[in-house]
């Protein structure tokens, strides 16, 4: 039955159902409510029944699908067997065509020849196996000897290690105390050496301090006695020149100054001052203090003779500034003020003076002298500068500025010493402080600063009282000497203690050397044992190396003969394979008829099997199509039953909730029902025809119990019509699943 016919049949069933329902409605109006409930139960039972049919149809469909799959697999297998049988048949036909008596005889002859080759190869394998067996025996013997030699070598190595350890222990026992004593002696000697060095150092400090005391004492004497005196004629000539620097006044001043005896005075004063021959650093603050105080006192004494009441001052700040200026603008810039011949000198560094004046915010004037470079009694150097040389240079420079300052200088040095409130015509020198410094070339620089509260160049001023300053210097030097002597005394005591410790350590070492005979014997025995162990070790090592070489040779030989055996075995295997191939060829040629018949039969059987499998597949496919159709019909039946059950439920709800006053004429009433997504309207005309008494009162439904029964009948007719409509229109079928 096709689907189209099935749908029409369903429509007829729907009409029949509707007719039966109408008949029941016309006969029993009083039982309308009961009939509706029965209809609901019937439709629900129909849904359950049709769903069970669907499940059964689905199971039948799955079984049919499995049968199709299995049949398809059988067809594939049978097809493969036909292909294989066809190839075998073709080979048998070809074999039959060449199975002549000549070919069979030729193949048989080849088998006989190959059998000889196989026998020869087999003999070669047997012989080579014997060679391998012999080589394996040699290798096993060599392995055993090598293993034994290795054990002996390991034992000898352990003996050497044990003897070495024993010797080390014996030597440690021998040297432990001696080493300790030797270390003690070394430490004592080191301490003694350090103490001796400390004594020497402190002795040098004492010597220097004593020299400083002597120098301080000499400075007191020099500061007290050194003055430069000017004659009345010199003072008058100088004043005339400074008031009017004419050539006549300059000549007059030169005439008076040329007879000065300051050089002779210097020789007399400094010649015998050996206490001042102490090497010092010109930049040392203490030395700078002595030099600046010495120079300022000489200058102030001259200013007093000249009739001036204002004095120059000396301070630590002025000395620091002088030293800083000389290093920055002469030493660092390699500025040689006088040069090597005076004429090639660079003169004063005027740019440096201007820059430094701006830096300090004050007025600066500079006098310079030959300092350490020229002496009547020889030339000094910065490396060997003594306090004697420095004081000598200051005295000589100031005297030279007074009595030997004509020519190109035009007495400018004398002018800088004797002017008041101004220097060389420059104002701003109302509070002059002098700083003294020596440059790296040995030249002396006398820096004249105007000290103010702002630049603080007058701070940390030195006392110009010769006796007080010199006494302070002497007191400090004596304190340093006392401290140095005390330190020397302590170091001397330490040296004595250290020397005693050296003697004690030497005695301890000597005592240990005399009592170490037994330890020495133990060391000797341990050394003998070690030498014996080393000899055994060398013998074992030689044997081990020999056996290892023999084992390596045996391994190589065994490997070689095994390779030859493997080659012979491979040759035999190849010969056997060739023989088997030839024998198979003879068998195929001899049995060509039988092989062809068997191949033909196998091929025919494979074809027959394929035919059967194909037929089974077609039958299974037919069954599958039937199961698929049955499943579709069952699913449509379920959908129709579910739709009827839903309509019955809706009708029941409408009838139970209706009001007699709201009913209308059955001929004009339309019930709108919704089924499976469609709106279906059925006109219930049959109910109106069954009740002709209604006449013109069709606009309202009756309010009696009979009228209620009529309404129920009309609802049932609508249910029947709905069933017919669903049959005619059909439902959307579910998609079949495989």
Task: Output the keywords.
four-stranded mixed beta sheet, two-stranded antiparallel sheet, disordered N terminus, 738 residues, mainly alpha, 8 strands, disordered C terminus
Short description:
The protein has helices at 3-27, 32-98, 101-225, 232-243, 247-257, 262-270, 285-306, 316-331, 350-360, 387-403, 412-418, 466-514, 517-590, 592-657, 686-689, 705-729, and strands at 313-314, 364-369, 421-423, 426-429, 432-438, 444-450, 670-675, 678-683.
Adjacency order of strands in the biggest sheet: 1-5-6-2
Structure class = mainly alpha
Beta strand count: 8
Task: Give the overall shape.
Answer: elongated
Major beta-sheet overview: 4 strands, mixed
Number of helices: 16
pLDDT averaged residue by residue: 80
Helix content: over 70%
Gyration radius, in Å: 72 Å
Low-confidence stretches: 1-32, 665-738
Bin the strand percentage.
5-15%
Helices and strands, in N-to-C order? HHHHHHHEHHEHHEEEEHHHEEHH
Instruction: State the end-to-end CA separation.
Output: 22 Å
Please explain how this structure is put together:
The protein has helices at about 5-25, 30-100, 100-225, 230-245, 245-255, 260-270, 285-305, 315-330, 350-360, 385-405, 410-420, 465-515, 515-590, 590-655, 685-690, 705-730; strands at about 315, 365-370, 420-425, 425-430, 430-440, 445-450, 670-675, 680-685. It is mainly alpha-helical and about 750 residues long. Strands 1-5-6-2 form a four-stranded mixed beta sheet, sandwiched between helices. β7 (about 670-675) and β8 form a beta hairpin. α1 (about 5-25) packs antiparallel against α16 and α7 (about 285-305) packs parallel to α10 (about 385-405).
């Amino acid at each position: 039955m096709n689907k189209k016919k099935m749908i029409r049949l369903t429509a007829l069933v729907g009409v029949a159902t509707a007719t039966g329902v109408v008949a029941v409605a016309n006969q029993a109006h009083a039982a309308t409510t009961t009939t509706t409930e029965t209809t609901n139960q019937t439709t629900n039972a129909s849904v359950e029944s049709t769903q069970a049919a669907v499940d059964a149809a689905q199971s039948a469909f799955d079984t049919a699908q499995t049968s199709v799959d299995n049949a398809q697999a059988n067809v594939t297998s049978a097809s493969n067997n036909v292909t294989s049988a066809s190839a075998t048949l073709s080979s048998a036909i070809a074999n039959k065509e060449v199975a002549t008596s000549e070919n069979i005889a030729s193949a048989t002859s080849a088998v006989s020849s190959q059998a000889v080759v196989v026998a020869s190869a087999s003999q070669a394998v047997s012989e080579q196996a014997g060679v391998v067996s012999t080589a394996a025996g040699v290798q096993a013997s060599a392995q055993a000897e090598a293993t034994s030699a290795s054990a002996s070598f390991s034992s000898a190595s352990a003996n050497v290690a044990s003897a070495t350890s024993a010797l080390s222990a014996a030597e440690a026992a021998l040297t432990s105390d001696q080493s300790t004593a030797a270390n003690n002696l070394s430490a004592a000697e080191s301490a003694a050496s350090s103490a001796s060095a400390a004594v020497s150092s402190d002795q040098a400090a004492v010597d220097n301090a004593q020299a400083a005391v002597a120098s301080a004492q000499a400075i007191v004497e020099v500061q007290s006695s050194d003055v430069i005196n000017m004659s009345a004629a010199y003072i008058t000539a100088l004043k005339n020149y400074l008031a009017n620097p004419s050539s006549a006044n300059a000549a007059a001043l030169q005439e008076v100054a040329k007879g000065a005896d300051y050089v002779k005075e210097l020789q007399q004063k400094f010649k015998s001052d050996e206490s001042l021959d102490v090497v010092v650093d010109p930049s040392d603050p203490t030395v700078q203090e002595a030099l600046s105080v010495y120079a300022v006192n000489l200058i102030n004494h001259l200013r007093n003779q000249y009739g001036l009441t204002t004095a120059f001052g000396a301070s630590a700040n002025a000395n620091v500034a002088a030293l800083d200026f000389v290093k920055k603008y002469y030493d660092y810039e390699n500025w040689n003020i006088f040069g090597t011949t005076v004429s090639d000198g660079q003169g004063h560094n005027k740019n440096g003076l201007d820059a430094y004046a701006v830096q300090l915010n004050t007025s600066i004037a500079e006098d310079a002298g030959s300092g350490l470079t020229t002496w009547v009694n020889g030339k000094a150097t910065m490396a060997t500068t003594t306090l004697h040389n420095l004081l000598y240079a200051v005295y000589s420079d100031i005297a030279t500025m007074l009595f030997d300052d004509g020519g190109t200088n035009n007495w400018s040095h004398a002018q800088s010493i004797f002017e008041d409130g101004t220097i060389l015509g420059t104002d701003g020198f109302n509070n002059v402080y002098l700083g003294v410094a020596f440059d790296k070339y040995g030249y002396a620089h006398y820096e004249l600063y105007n000290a103010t509260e702002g630049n603080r160049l007058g701070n940390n001023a030195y006392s110009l009282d010769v006796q007080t300053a010199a006494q302070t210097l002497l007191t400090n030097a004596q304190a340093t000497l006392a401290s140095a002597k005390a330190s020397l005394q302590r170091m001397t005591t330490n040296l004595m203690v250290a020397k005693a410790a050296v003697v004690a350590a030497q005695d301890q070492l000597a005592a240990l050397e005399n009592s170490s005979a037994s330890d020495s014997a133990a060391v000797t025995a341990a050394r003998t044992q070690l030498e014996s162990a080393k000899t055994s070790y060398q013998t074992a090592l030689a044997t081990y190396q020999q056996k290892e070489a023999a084992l390596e040779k045996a391994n190589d030989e065994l490997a070689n003969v095994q390779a030859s055996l493997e080659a012979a075995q491979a040759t035999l295997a190849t010969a056997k394979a060739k023989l088997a191939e030839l024998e198979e060829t003879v068998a195929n040629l001899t049995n060509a008829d039988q092989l062809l018949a068997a191949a033909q039969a196998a091929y025919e059987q494979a074809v027959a099997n394929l035919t059967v499998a194909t037929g089974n597949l077609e039958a299974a496919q037919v069954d599958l199509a039937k199961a698929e159709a049955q499943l579709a019909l069952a699913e449509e039946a379920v959908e129709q039953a579910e739709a009827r059950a839903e309509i019955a439920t809706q009708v029941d709800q409408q009838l139970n909730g209706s009001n007699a006053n709201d009913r209308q004429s059955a001929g004009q009433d339309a019930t709108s029902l919704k089924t499976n997504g469609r709106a279906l309207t059925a006109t219930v005309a049959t109910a109106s025809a069954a009740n002709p008494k209604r006449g013109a009162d069709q606009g309202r439904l009756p309010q009696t119990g009979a009228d209620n029964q009529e309404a129920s009948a009309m609802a049932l007719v609508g249910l029947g019509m709905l069933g017919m409509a669903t049959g005619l229109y059909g439902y959307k079928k579910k998609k079949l699943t495989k």
